[in-house]
Amino acid sequence: MQGNLGRGVIKVSAVAPEHRVVEAPARVFDTQEGLQAAFEAGELNGDVVAVVRFQGPNANGMPELHRLTPVLGALQDAGHHVALVTDGRMSGASGKVPAVIHVGPEALAGGPLARVRDGDLVRVDAMAGTLALLGDPAEFEARPAVPAPVDEFAQFSVGRGLFGLFRRHARKAEEGGSALDLSEADAVPSAALSVAQ
Fold first, then answer.
1. Please, which residues have CB within 8 angstroms of residue 10's CB and are 6 or more apart in sequence?
2. How confident is the model at residue 124 (pLDDT cuts 50, 70, 90)?
3. For 184-192, which contacts have Cβ atoms below 8 Å and span 24 or more sequence positions?
4. Considering Cα of 125, then 128, then 130, then 132, what sign does the dihedral take?
5. DSSP 73-140
6. How close are the terminal C-alpha atoms of the chain, in Å?
7. What sign for the dihedral angle of Cα 126, 106, 115, 157?
8. Which of 55, 140, 161, 171 has the fewest CB atoms in 10 Å of its CB?
9. Continuous segment of H or E residues that includes residue 154
10. Per-residue pLDDT tens for 21-79?
């Protein structure tokens, strides 16, 4: 998938053909918990492209977002046109809701998802392979990127603090999101790996 919202991947094997193209207003969240809370509060009751940003390798290590599948599936079952767009991941799980994942550049790096606002009209077209915010391209490009939310948990959690170094040095999602450089020139010889183990 590619367009003015970045590049990402989508798996459509479980998505019915009639759900592979979604054009709907965006609803933007910085956490999956925020989306779940909005659903439980009855705030999501129409067509929607849920944008869940700041979930990439540098932001918070790309947590698994599969908890969103039942929420978005319930909206789709209610007859709404629904899609998910995120710089996070959903492993390899198949879902009936179209989900564009691993979108890059990620929001933390100032990628396009950091400029999306609630109500923006977004088109996810798995048939054409396009991911686009519709409207005035110049206005969209001129918008400032929103800053990443303050993660109080990360500030005070020993585990999150320890892995902060890895998140800061993680490669892009489309490059594997690893904090290790496994290019051929820098690869550790397999003999050394077996000794280290």
1. 1, 98, 99, 100, 101, 124, 126
2. very high
3. none
4. negative
5. HHHHHTT--EEEEESSB-TT---SS-EEEEEES-GGGT-GGGG--TT-EEEEETTTTEEEE-S-HHHH
6. 39
7. positive
8. 161
9. helix 152-156
10. 999 999 999 999 999 999 999 999 999 999 999 998 888 777 889 889 899 999 999 99
Q: Could you give all domains of the chain from N- to C-terminal order, each with its CATH number? A: 2-142 (3.50.30.80)
pTM of the model: 0.80
**Residue 149 pLDDT class (50, 70, 90 cuts):** confident
Half-sphere exposure in the Cβ direction for 87 (13 Å, CA): 31
Tokens of 105: 């550049």
Number of H helices, E strands in the chain: 7, 8
- b/e 30-62 (16+ beta carbons within 10 angstroms → b): bbbeebbebbeeeebeebbbbbbbbbbbbbbbb
Query: Does position 189 have pLDDT exceeding 50, yes or no?
Result: no
- 50 is written with which tokens? 């849920």
More confident residue, 163 or 151: 151
Which DSSP symbol is given to 64?
B
Of 114, 132, 113, nearest to 123 by C-alpha is 132
Q: Which of 156, 149, 154, 183 is nearest to 167 (CA)?
A: 154
